[in-house]
Specification:
The complex is a heterodimer of chains A (322) and B (322). By secondary structure, chain A is an all-alpha fold. Chain A has 14 helices and no strands. Chain A is globular, with a radius of gyration of 24 Å. Chain A starts with a helix and ends with a helix. Chain B is of the alpha/beta class. Chain B has one domain: P-loop containing nucleotide triphosphate hydrolases (Rossmann fold), CATH 3.40.50.300. Chain B has eleven helices and twelve strands. Chain B has an eight-stranded mixed β-sheet with strand order 6-7-8-3-9-10-12-11, with helices on both faces. A four-stranded antiparallel β-sheet of chain B has the order 2-1-4-5, with helices on one face. Chain B is globular and about 65 Å long. The chains are: A mainly alpha (322), B alpha/beta (322). Chains A and B meet through helix 9 and helix 10 of A and helix 2 and helix 3 of B. The structure holds adenosine-5'-triphosphate and magnesium ion.
Amino acid sequence: MTARLVAGKVLGALGTLAFVVVFNFFLFRVVESNPVATLYRGRNLTDAQREELTRQFGLDGSKLEQFWRYMEQTLQLNFGRSYATNQPVIDEIWAATPQTLALVGTSTVLAMAIGLAMGVVAGWRRGTAHDRVLTGISIVTWSTPEFWLGMLLLTVFAVDLGLFPTGGISDPSGPDGGLGELLDQAHHMALPCLTLTIAYLGEYALIMRSSIIDVAREDYLTLARAKGLRDAQVRDRHALRNALLPSTTLIALSFGFVLSGAITVETVFSWPGLGLLTYESLRGPDLPMLQGLFLLFSAAVIVFNLAAELLYPYLDPRVRAR
Amino acid sequence: MTVPILRVRDLRVTYRGERGVVPAVRGVSFELGPGETLGLAGESGCGKSSIAGALLRVLPRGTEVTGEVLLDGEDVLTMKPGRLRAVRWSEMAIVFQGALHSLNPVQRVGSQIAEAIELHQPGADARGRVSELLELVGLPARRAIDYPHQLSGGQRQRVLIALALACNPRVLVADEPTTALDVMVQAQVLDLLQRLQRELGLAMLFITHDLSMLAHVCRRTAVMYAGRIVEEGPSEDVFQRAAHPYAAALAAAFPVIGDPAFRKRPVGLVGDPPDPRELPPGCPFHPRCAVARPDCDSIEVELWPVAADRRAACVHVLGGPR
Ligand SMILES: Nc1ncnc2c1ncn2[C@@H]1O[C@H](COP(=O)(O)OP(=O)(O)OP(=O)(O)O)[C@@H](O)[C@H]1O
Ligand SMILES: [Mg+2]
């Protein structure tokens, strides 16, 4: 791929990001025109207090002035202060990010590995008992609501059997620091991670199954078999990579949703990540926080989409040539 | 004739799939001696490629193949999987129809050739052999690092030929190796195949729908209609003095330009070849046959000697040559 093409794609992504930033401004001004009145409903504020709060929230001046101030601050990653805690939004977001990355990242990688393998086996043996069982599992897990599955696992494994903690990220009375703390956190992460893994893998399996079925008809697989390769060699050396091509974009996009993907599950398990933060901010509503979160979530999708487009040519020589 | 290297007896291929039961090949027998050439001609859908696929058992799963395919006296159709994989490509190789789709689009052509060599001749200098093979088919050795889409149709066809010769097979099946190419390139590829066949002493089954081509390439020719051989004999005779009305019509459809004999003969092939699932009763050719008799819709004649080394399946032949 030429440098010009890369530059074009990067510029395209930046343009999309700029659009999202602008859109965000209007979205939140339309949703809530007077947060001061909403937040302090039922409390008697003096005019001076009201003006001070309005200024603090950056809601004074004309809309145009607000817009320029918003743009300037956003470029400096300053999203204002949370209505709820009065802490800078960016600090709260950074504090919650590692937990979400750990939980959703692990689940996504696991779900992808298991789901893609399931899809390959099911599609390659289309119509067999293997296929029916695997596809059945995929469809069921795909259509199961995450929060319902989470609550089910929580009830059975945490409440009834007592094998896992019911929520949070660590045991307050547990070990502090070192390997002990890490193991404690892993123990807390197990159930939400299992929930998300199950919830995600069906989609990967179904996508992969249909790509493999499409590829299985190709003439070059007949030739590969005629050469004398084993069935598994035909599948792994010739079918797999071609089947992965159409799924690359989808897979990359699913990584883009890693940050925003776990709102319900984090809430069910009180996992202190971005999902729980989003849920709590929605209840406020904590507009600056939501604004920051939405921007981050959109940016993640845009970045991974860009990554997919830049990666694709390395997988498909036909695209590389252009 | 010497002891045949390939002897096919009563071969039947029946597809079973979404389109129902398709009897594509209905009892085909032929023999091929070492270094001999046999042409197989017939309209689209008459079962030529089905025969090619059956010879190496690479037809879609679930396809029923019966009869015998004796390769050096050993029946391919009843071979154990391990033996079958060993025989594929090292004893018999196929230049598949459709050079466009027979190569894996995401693998360099050189490594697709090398894969076969490494599989059947472990320890051999695969890279050196790939260069040798490419030069043998008239391509520069540096083309090995190209991907299929970087080659022209004719070059891809040459790669497929090189690939088929990679493991020094004694039997080569060429399934319409020139169909997708323009006329100039057709002639080049045809010359190449003929030269290689002679130099390497290959036994070759050459499949085409163009009967006139076979007159040049093959000593003997078999003409197929609706899954059966309807005439077989020396190519010259079949082409110029066909005994079966279908073979005659097919020969007339590809006249040799400038030969007055062909101007007088009617190009008597009207209508489409029948759907193998709904063959007309009796002789399947009778609805299109210019010389059909009233009883042709009730009897399907077996191959019958026309001359010492010629056979045809037609009621007119039963009473001696027309
Ligand atoms: N996988 C399949 N499933 C069902 N029917 C098939 C399948 N492959 C081929 N057929 C049918 O079998 C018949 C013979 O097909 P085949 O490909 O052998 O013909 P062909 O003589 O090679 O034709 P062409 O000149 O177009 O290559 C056709 O009617 C075709 O529709
Ligand atoms: Mg064919």
